[in-house]
Design goal:
Rossmann fold, globular, 4-stranded parallel beta sheet, 12 strands, 2 domains, 16 helices, alpha/beta, 6-stranded parallel beta sheet
Length: 381
């Protein structure tokens, strides 16, 4: 349940499913080193949560076996009709537990919020993950992706044939971002020392290698050197923070970038910003861009994963992955044209509000659960 889209997604879904039809238990492990535990959405929506301390994001055989055994016991006790797993490591352990628990096998669903099957690890570990995903896909009743691009990747990598996948976009509560308080926005700009003529570019997310915040820092440095009046704000934390702070000094961003760490007041931060940015090498569907678009911000992002589903035509600028100059040019173009920022922000807002509402997510998942249960002759335990 580290900071990011999957934690928000499962928290909202677990708390908002119709309680007259679904009794839900949300099981999670611990966040990785240097990452904040992000249970706030789940607690806010009233989800019932249980923590397994032995379950973590890194591969540790003894801890992983303890987590698997604990999940098997929990499955036997709770006796679910449906086991729905999310993310790679938890998806492997959770689905294995559902199959090993004995008795009537529950309906098994897995959601990919992106994947780690290329570009994350070395060849040996990547091969292990691919083999496990292919084997588990055979015993999973439905595979869900948050974007068509993720489906394309997984089919290409041989995880499962296309008919086994279904696309269900993320769903978020966006009203706080649409109705941001102007006073709170001004207070945030004062906090970071942004002048009235400065353009605040904000990144919200983890500080881990795949997010390529190093690329963002270099791109901003280039844009500033070309005269763009940019001030950069980085909201989030992670293993790379000390390294990224050193890089910011090396590329000449002293006094022009603020590392704020984890913050819960993302709505006023977004309201006080002018551009939202993500420069990842890989993404599922970036929650931070959806929230920023709901606040009327134009978006700059690398064209990876499901990003193009969020950055609609006319709602922002997409650049190739790892393109430092492309990031600089996109930021400079928007920084120098307030009218363009306003126009793109309006398009971005209309797009995400129509596509990524929480009500649509809950309705789609409830219909899916019911259809899968009806396909069983007798879903009772």
């Amino acid at each position: 349940m580290n900071l990011g889209g999957p934690a928000y997604h499962v928290g909202l879904l677990s708390g908002r499913l119709d309680r007259a039809r679904f009794e839900t238990l949300l099981v999670s492990g611990r966040a990785g080193p240097g990452e904040e535990d992000f249970r706030e959405p789940a607690e806010r929506y009233g989800a019932r949560i249980q923590t397994l301390p032995s379950l973590g994001p890194r591969i540790r055989p003894l801890s992983d076996l303890r987590a698997l055994a604990a999940l098997v016991r929990l499955t036997r006790s709770f006796r679910p009709h449906i086991v729905h797993t999310h993310t790679s490591k938890a998806g492997i352990v959770g689905r294995a537990a559902a199959l090993l628990a004995g008795g009537r096998r529950p309906v098994v669903v897995h959601t990919y919020h992106g994947h780690v099957l290329e570009g994350y690890f070395g060849p040996a570990r990547t091969l292990v993950y691919r083999v496990l995903e292919r084997l588990l896909a055979r015993v999973t009743d439905r595979l869900i992706c948050v974007s068509e691009a993720n489906v394309d990747d997984l089919v290409r990598l041989g995880v499962a044939p296309r008919p086994k996948f279904e696309v269900v976009p993320l769903g978020l509560e966006l009203e706080d971002f649409r109705a941001a308080d102007p006073a709170a926005a001004r207070a945030f700009r004062e906090e970071i020392g942004a002048g009235v003529d400065e353009v605040v570019v904000t990144y919200v997310g983890r500080l881990v290698p795949v997010k390529r915040v190093d690329l963002l820092l270099r791109g901003v440095a280039r844009a500033q050197a070309a005269g763009a009046p940019i001030r950069l704000v980085i909201v989030g934390d992670g293993e790379l923070r000390p390294q990224l702070e050193r890089l910011a000094r090396q590329v000449g961003l002293d006094g022009r970038v603020r590392f704020l760490g984890y913050r819960t007041d993302v709505a006023p931060i977004t309201a006080g910003s002018d551009i939202a940015v993500v420069t990842s090498d890989q993404e599922g569907t970036p929650v931070s861009l959806i929230q920023a678009a709901a606040a009327g911000l134009p978006l700059v992002a690398t064209r990876v994963g499901g990003v193009a589903d969020v950055v609609s035509e006319g709602g922002g600028l997409l650049v190739p992955p790892r393109d430092e100059q492309g990031v600089a040019d996109a930021l400079a173009e928007l920084a120098e044209d307030a009218e363009l920022r306003e126009r793109m922000g309006a398009v971005a807002q209309a797009h995400v509000v129509s596509r990524f509402s929480s009500g649509r997510l809950v309705e789609r998942i409830e219909r899916l659960y019911e259809a899968l249960l009806e396909s069983r002759q007798d879903p009772s335990p």
